[in-house]
Amino acid sequence: MGTFPLSAAGPRVREVIRHETARRRSLRLLSREPLTDTLVRFTFGGDLEGFTSLGPEDHVKAFFPVAHGMVGRDWTPSEFRPVGASSGPELDLDLVVHGDAGPATAWASRATPGDQLEIGGPRGSRLAPSGFGNALLVADATGMPALRRWIRALAGVTPVHAVLFGDDESLPGYLDGTEGLAATPQVASAPRYDLLEVLQAQDVTADTFVWAAGEANALIPVRRWLRRELGLPKEHLSLHGYWKQGVAGLDHHAPLDPSDPE
Ligand SMILES: Cc1cc2nc3c(=O)[nH]c(=O)nc-3n(C[C@H](O)[C@H](O)[C@H](O)COP(=O)(O)OP(=O)(O)OC[C@H]3O[C@@H](n4cnc5c(N)ncnc54)[C@H](O)[C@@H]3O)c2cc1C
Q: How far does residue 134's CA lie from ligand 1's centre (Å)?
């Protein structure tokens, strides 16, 4: 997706850019390629004229027909090529295929080249901040496309460490060839899977920016540790439940920790 801009608004401020072209687009699946045990890359062509995604946390909404109408699910634009191998614009979405439990994964588990998908967005882009001493990025499989965009956005500007978590032990391979990490990613995966313990071994200081995305319940203790124990100001944190065990269509705008909805 070329270069990812940093906020020019000033140290530690994250500029928000609204996009005029946030309309519904009809895409055609060109190919699918497995990336890790759970992540599959879906490459789309079609109506991508003017597609813009500038921020590492950007998301598109994909729409799926269900009995009572349409539902939307959020995905991160992983790569956009104005002219790709198909000679037209191409968008990559890297998706966790987790069986048949929801409309998005049901679509992804069956989709074959030629299938259509309707998307909207990104409606806006929140740029990466500048001015932090270092950054800690935390993600499970669903957050990996955004995590890779964060690494690229901060490369050469802010030293970045990454912690990956969840059941997919092959996740580090997703970052092969991605330059900009200060060290090999740490992994909290099955059967050990103690995310907090792995994070507490990281060098988090008063000058650290922390971004995290993944299963919401796993991130609640992380937020409590960062906010209550370490006392990091909320401007230093960008923590997002991207899905929640047992909840369909999680509203990611709702507070991550319902007991502390700040
Ligand atoms: C801003 C944002 C960006 C995102 N980017 C990506 C992305 O790039 N790639 C990606 O794969 N996902 C991404 N997600 C997560 C994705 O939107 C959710 O996983 C979504 O719930 C999938 O919808 P579904 O229809 O498959 O399942 P739903 O109908 O939402 O849920 C059905 C059941 O499946 C479970 N479930 C949902 N997701 C998972 C999962 N990953 N693993 C296991 N069980 C699950 C739920 O707990 C529920 O029990 C993103 C989410 C947000 C908010």
A: 29
Which residue lies with its CA nearest to atom 44 of ligand 1?
98
Minimal-distance CA residue to ligand 1 atom 5: 75
**Does the C-beta of 245 come closer than 6 Å to ligand 1?**
yes
Grouped pLDDT means (10 residues each) for the chain, 262 residues: 72 86 90 98 97 96 93 98 97 95 96 98 94 97 98 95 95 96 90 87 96 96 96 95 96 90 73
Range of the domain at 225: 127-243
Residue 94 lies in a domain: yes
Closest CA to 171 of 129, 199, 212, 138: 138
Residues 100, 142 within the same domain: no
Burial of 66 from C-beta contacts in 10 A (0-12 / 13-18 / 19+) = exposed
The reported pTM is: 0.96
How many structural domains does the chain have?
A: 2
Contacts of 101 (CB under 8 A, 6+ apart): 248
DSSP state of 9: S
Instruction: Give the chain's end-to-end CA distance (angstroms, integer).
Output: 33
Q: Residue 63 is which amino acid?
A: F
> Can you give the CATH number for the domain in which 224 is found?
3.40.50.80
